[in-house]
Amino acid sequence: MCSLEKRGRVYVLSLTGDNEHRLNADLIAELRSALAKVRTEYAAAPEGSALVTAAEGRFFSNGFDLAWANAAGSPSASRQRLSSLVALFKPVVADLMSLPMPTISAVNGHAAAAGLMLAISHDYTVMRGDRGFLYMSELNIGLPFPPYFMSLMRAKIADPRTLRDVTLRAAKITAAEAKARGIVDSVHAGADEALQAAMRMGEELAARNWDGGVYASIRMAAFPDLCRAVGLPAEEKAQTFSSKL
Asked: Domains in the chain, start-ordered, CATH in brackets?
């Protein structure tokens, strides 16, 4: 479901297989395990590093596994299953927000709902331009946004009109439009080119050899509302760090 390897100074976390990469309990657990391994290895040998998250096939991620949730047998049971996925995914965002290194997502195709949340939980996002779109489907399928989804979108989508279109129009945004609106940082010809661009950026950032603890502290201080929404006491961490100066 996912794999982790290190290429030079860059960790590459890949969603594997030619499928929709639906976020179910198993995939979420594998993502958290991979991120924990990255954190542990960095702690054992702190050096300039970066993380690139990519995916195989036509999709980056099509969001939560709604088929599994809807198979529960009753509306209330389905809601409980979906709520469990919402709760399980929140620590993934927290893991990425507190990871002691720069992070980059390489979006190879559609990134919808929780899949888009996964992409923009990274510091940088690059995207292929020949296919795929970004899309928050909740309005069209009659689901409210989890509060931490809204915090993440407010943190990472600066233009209020773009935020309106993403949340209140359920707009499907192409790579070119996402670049123009500031959601992604760069657009590339295809999936391979997007991954190569993410790897180049990862190598460049890792070569700066920044202190990972300082990097994570600054990131969390930059997005305090989001950090609080996912259970990271960003302000306390920033104050603790400041007290050591």
From this structure: 2-210 (3.90.226.10)
